[in-house]
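Support request, priority: normal
Reporter: lab tech (M.K.)
Component: structure prediction queue

Hi team, I submitted a job for GerAB/ArcD/ProY family transporter from Paenibacillus ottowii yesterday, and the status page still shows it as pending. I've pasted the exact input below so you can check whether something in the sequence is tripping the parser. The sequence length should be 369 residues. Please let me know if I need to resubmit or if it's stuck on your end.
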Amino acid sequence: MEEKGRISITNIAILVFLSIIGDCVLVYPSLITGISKQDAWISSFLSIPAGLALLLLLLRVHQLYPDLTFIQLSQRILGPWFGALISIWYLFHLLMNSAIYLREAGDFMNNQTYVMTPLPVINLLLVLVLMWGMYMGLEPIARTAQLMFPLCLAFTLFLILCLLPQCDSQQLKPVMEQDIPKIIEGGIFALSYPFGELAFLLMIFPYVNKQPGLKKSVLLSGLAASVLLSVLLLVSLLVLGPFVTENSVYTSYTLSKKINIGNFLQRIESMMSTAWIITTFVKTILHFYAFTLGITQLLRLHNVRTFLGPSFMILFGMIMVSAPNITYYLDTIIHAWIYWDLTDSIVLPLLLLVVYKLRSKSNHSLGPG
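Reply from support: The job had stalled in the queue. We restarted it manually and it finished. Here are the results:
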């Protein structure tokens, strides 16, 4: 299946930014604070260079064959059988990530806003909207994300700025109370979540217009998004303290309830909810687009739309069985899930890169790169 749509450098930079922010804007502070406590902000900032190195690795693998997706790269470099096996592993990861993101959004809406609406109904509505976006293709998805980007950025910055007067540096003391291994463990989580979830970019990069500046734009976007998440985590610690941050599942939603300027500007959590649902939806649709495109290429189908119906039925079922609730996911599943993320975003790209180099030195022709 050949995707006819093409996106610009600006589009891919915005997609990277929204994918990093994604669902993390609500649950990232509690996740990292649960490991590093009041030193979570140190773990978060330490993960930024490693995250940028991960993006550089993905870009380097893409440059081996700029016109090929991960599925095509795997079969070209690793051979048809082993490449297909790696592709199945990779695609299943994309499918499960898509299901988890939609489950997070469904649980949030069911617990905070539509409390009387059955969860399967909310999930079905989310899947139908996702299906419409998938039917339209990659280019409309990217352009819609570009339209929504200023809104999400403005809401997040507004939240941070309005909370600055309530920041208390005493909440961070004693600094470095956690030992170095705990801070490093928090940094690994901060690397995996969200940078480790960017492996899907290897399915998107081939459809970016061939223009100079791709590497610079992706890295700058990744830097800006990771710094914004780290600042949000720092503000959460300064305002709520480590205990409340750790035990509040939707930390940013809790923070938005704290805003009260002159008893006039308050209760803006609906703005935060809007921003989070948009960023999570963009992240989800990109993962599921990568999954659908990949399975189409793996099975050598001629039209991706022939697989849309079955794929959405699979997705809806996976949403319901992926986790009983968001608390179970954050407390139990995520501690093992990060290694799956890091395998697909670091180990598999490194495997492709190493095998490519070895085969090139052994004079096994791989064709022009």
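The first strand starts at residue 260 and ends at 261. Residues 9-356 form a domain with the Hydantoin permease fold (CATH 1.10.4160.10). Let us know if anything else looks off. Ticket resolved.
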